[in-house]
Amino acid sequence: MRRRAAGGKRDARGFSALELLGVLAVIAAVAGGLFVWGGYATGRARDMSCDSNLKQLGLALAMYADDHGGRLPASADAWPAITRAYTKNQQIVLCPLERSRPAQPPSGSSFAVSYFLVPGLASDDPPATIVAGDTEPRHGGRWNAVCLDGRIQTLSAAELEPYREYVVEGKTEDETATPGVHAD
User: Fold this and answer.
1) Do the beta carbons of residue 130 and residue 118 sit within 8 Å?
2) pTM attached to this predicted model
3) Are 165 and 173 in contact (CB under 8 A)?
4) Cα(22)–Cα(89) distance, integer angstroms
């Protein structure tokens, strides 16, 4: 605020140091809030992208089942064939929160995936049956998964336990285990 000098005239000295510090504190608080909110929004966008990937994989599996008499793939290694035949984007097998492998398109014998596949299911199994999901707990310590009916679920470690045999964390086909296949 400007002070009034004697005689009612305004003093032209500008803002006081205290006023400037107050304005800077407000700007810093707003910027900090935006930074925190921006990080949350980015993480939520990646979660939604993972959900979208799983939804598309669920649709691809449904089309596969339609073409194969209601049977889903008998092997957990079916991702390359499914994505090539039933999707336009082969990157959907990679969770956006995947940090252990570079996001690369499928090629040759190496096929990086972020999602396990439960082999040998049929389209007439119970709709809530998990058909595919994250190989690691990338979503706040939880796993995203898609059901036969196309629903996306977020699973705790206890809820994932029946599917644990299909989850191999941190391996690629180039290594000793294939993603989505239990290594004994």
Assistant:
1) yes
2) 0.64
3) no
4) 51
